[in-house]
Amino acid sequence: MGVSERKQRQHEELRNQIIECSREIVEEEGWANLSIRKIADAIEYSVPVIYKHFENKEAITAYFVQEGFQNLLNEVLAHIDSNASIEDRFQQLGMGYYHFAEKFPKHYEVMFGLGIPTCESARNVESINQLSGIFRSMIKELSHKNPNKEIDQCLKYRTLWSLLHGVVAFELLALPGVNPVCSAKALEDVVDGYVKSILF
């Protein structure tokens, strides 16, 4: 292995070490306690070394946002059966969305800390673009089942994100000791109401 290849490998290994250290800090202490200084101390490197890989804390969180949306996309795709009815696929989408949030709560927290994805974020992050495409395609297919009703598909797109996020946020933020309504039932009810708002 040549010198340049060795340096590149070492660069990638250190970058991965920074990412995994960041992941551990967030899991144990939360996003608010993640800092470049804390990462540097944990992996025993100087702060300037960290800045060679990530220009600031926001660049690290941006990495986790992209990773999170890719995982969300994978989870949604794994739950949707293309042979199922459009009504059932909406329920499957909802469960895939919720299962992702259950599995990756810290990712979900940083992904949606500033609200639902914008058109700009969909253009800049491929996984968000693909996920948005799935949402919009399903809304379009469902609206075709009621050709006599004028559907604002842009509004329904934002409403769908908001409903899914609302159920997830309610569960993730539930007070300790509180016994919430079964999340699966709540999600099923919300998605059912959403589908009916387009069909009837």
UniProtKB/TrEMBL annotation:
Bilayer-crossing residues are: none
Task: Kindly indicate whether the keyword DNA-binding belongs to this entry.
Answer: yes
SUPFAM superfamilies from the xrefs?
Answer: Homeodomain-like (SSF46689), Tetracyclin repressor-like, C-terminal domain (SSF48498)
Coiled-coil region list:
none
Q: List the PROSITE patterns.
A: HTH_TETR_2
InterPro entries for the chain: Homeodomain-like_sf, HTH-type_Tx_Regulator, HTH_TetR, MT1864/Rv1816-like_C, Tet_transcr_reg_TetR-rel_C_sf
| Residue ranges constituting the HTH tetR-type domain according to the UniProt record | 12-72
Record keywords:
DNA-binding, Transcription, Transcription regulation
Feature: DNA-binding region: 35-54
Q: Does the keyword Transcription apply?
A: yes
According to UniProt, the name of this protein is TetR/AcrR family transcriptional regulator
